[in-house]
Amino acid sequence: MKTFDVYNQFDVTPLKGKDVYVYDEENNKYLDLYGGHAVISIGHSEKNYVRNLTSQLKKIGFYSNAVKNPLQEKLSSEINRHAGLINYKLFMCNSGAEAVENSLKLSSFLTGKKRIIAFKNSFHGRTSAAVAVTDNNEINSKLNRQHSVTFVDFNDEKNLKKQLSKGDVSAIIFESIQGVGGLDQPSDSFIKSLSYYQKKYEVMIIADEVQSGFYRSGNFFAYQKFDIVPDIITIAKGMGNGFPVGGIMVSPKIDPKKGMLGTTYGGNHLACVASLSVLDYMEKNKVKERISKLETYFKDLSSQVESIKRVKGRGLMLGLEFDFNVSGLRSKLVYEHRIFTGSSSNKNLIRILPPLSIKKHHFASFFDALKKSL
């Protein structure tokens, strides 16, 4: 029986994965520089991750939030510690889109307003409000367009102030590094202005860290490069290394009320153990320190390829921009060199989002293949 065919796919069928590689049905090895949309954070089938999930599954894999699960509080504490947050509270769900939905809903509850400011080229998910704050008309239906959303250009402080001065804005949602949008970043001064307007206009600031969080950018959260303190932080993807998990970190100044948010599967025992295992790996393997060196090495190698016009992003959330459509180049990398890379709304850009366990020699292999493919 066929599935509902909505995906553009490469003709590759991975059957197993190990660290930065996946293997197809003929045991061909592919270097994974995309991590399934930046989901694989500590490597495929990392041994302690697998062991911890297996051990938990033998005890209890799931119960709903009708009962207590101390693993949620443990995970909340660990995220606060790694990120250097002070008393942010974790609400767990199952995906990045759900995290965004809950952040927007919570903002509206708190402000009593409904209009959202988002940014051009943004991507925040494909569900109701999450896709409404995504700057892509092709994936927004009439139902989604009922939401009240205004898109502003990064660094256009004049228009931002104009929109906020109307007094009907509930929240501003931003990506510190745009993912699907092509790895553009706002200026330091623009984000500082968000912080100012956050207080002046009493709007909620939502930092969408679904793709850039959990050290992907070099910081635990990408927004931490800037001078801003978000009210809500959305998290998912690398948080679970492939296990479906998401959440929001909520400022201590925001008080919860029973029933204002909810989920059946969110925060289940397996999801908590998956995320705790990710954080444990990151600490023991000094991921933050490694990322800075790997970013420098990657950019050094890219400077030796004349066809590359620009390197975008930071940490291990990177993009290579060319002056031509890269779809054919990406196909060559997959079928001739067995290397996965990512696309974006910028058709001239290849996204590089590898497991954070990657090593220099993997990047060297990629650039060798890239030169042969150009």
List the helices and strands and how they pair.
Layout: E1 14-18, E2 21-24, E3 29-32, H1 35-38, H2 47-59, H3 70-83, E4 89-93, H4 96-111, E5 115-119, H5 128-132, E6 149-152, H6 157-164, E7 169-174, H7 188-200, E8 204-208, E9 232-235, E10 246-250, H8 269-284, H9 287-302, E11 310-314, E12 317-321, H10 327-335, E13 339-340, E14 349-352, H11 360-373
Parallel strand pairs: 3-13, 5-6, 5-7, 7-8, 8-9
Antiparallel strand pairs: 1-2, 2-3, 4-10, 9-10, 11-12, 12-14
Q: Mind summarizing the main beta sheet?
A: 7 strands, mixed
Query: What are the secondary-structure elements, in order, as H or E?
Result: EEEHHHEHEHEHEHEEEHHEEHEEH
Structural class: alpha/beta
Got a strand count? 14
CATH class of the domain at 48-284: Alpha Beta
Based on CA atoms alone, the radius of gyration comes out at: 20 Å
Outline the structure in words.
By secondary structure, this protein is an alpha/beta fold. The protein has a domain at 48-284: Type I PLP-dependent aspartate aminotransferase-like (Major domain) (Aspartate Aminotransferase, domain 2, 3-Layer(aba) Sandwich), CATH 3.40.640.10. It has helices at 35-38, 47-59, 70-83, 96-111, 128-132, 157-164, 188-200, 269-284, 287-302, 327-335, 360-373, and strands spanning 14-18, 21-24, 29-32, 89-93, 115-119, 149-152, 169-174, 204-208, 232-235, 246-250, 310-314, 317-321, 339-340, 349-352. The strands form three sheets. Strands 4-10-9-8-7-5-6 form a seven-stranded mixed sheet, sandwiched between helices. It has a four-stranded mixed sheet with strand order 1-2-3-13. Helix 7 (188-200) links the parallel strand 7 and strand 8 (204-208). The radius of gyration is 20 Å and the shape is globular. It starts with 13 loop residues before the first strand and ends with a helix.
